[in-house]
């Protein structure tokens, strides 16, 4: 809940606090990040991650405090239907490119999505997502399959052969967090 509340107000908080401090000090050059030193310092000492992923960099740019809660403090975030759809869709798309090009079809992609969701829903954090409402889960599933079908209208996996997939990108971190 904390992250959900923070995510909602973070952009306004970061932008408003930074602008107020800039006006108060009249020194634009002191601000190397989205937040000022006054706001970052209360975060306290921390063990920084040794690597950054592209998604963690995006999170930092959106809101450094949210980044800290997510990647340093590792505060659990609530599971949402959008998160479940993203994970199951990612698994299905990854799986379809494990197959020979001639086998890649909409039916296979849908089957891989269903297989991934069947596996995910066994996990406690996803099991309660639809609170036993089979009709809501079915509607969500059909909408998800529609999203995957829309993807296939944009890109035909039978003629696309990815050069690389799921390559790790990272960068070692050095110095204080405000230099990230």
Model description:
The structure is a single chain. The chain has about 180 residues and is mainly alpha-helical. It has two domains: about 1-80, no CATH class; about 80-155, no CATH class. The protein has eight helices and no strands. Helix 1 packs across helix 4, helix 3 packs across helix 4 and helix 6 (about 105-120) runs antiparallel to helix 8 (about 135-155). The chain starts with a helix and ends in a 26-residue tail after the last helix.
Total count of helical runs of at least 4 residues? 8
- Uncertain segments are 1-43
Q: If you compute it from the alpha carbons, what radius of gyration comes out, rounded to the nearest whole angstrom? A: 21 Å
Q: What's the N-to-C terminus distance?
A: 27 Å
Order of helices and strands: HHHHHHHH
Total domain modules: 2
List the helices and strands and how they pair.
Layout: H1 2-25, H2 37-40, H3 54-62, H4 64-72, H5 81-96, H6 106-120, H7 124-127, H8 134-154
Helix pairs in contact: 1-4, 3-4, 5-6, 6-8
Structure in a nutshell:
Helix content is 57%, strand content 0%.
Essential attributes:
single chain; 180 residues; mainly alpha; 2 domains; 8 helices; 57% helix; 0% strand; flat; disordered N terminus
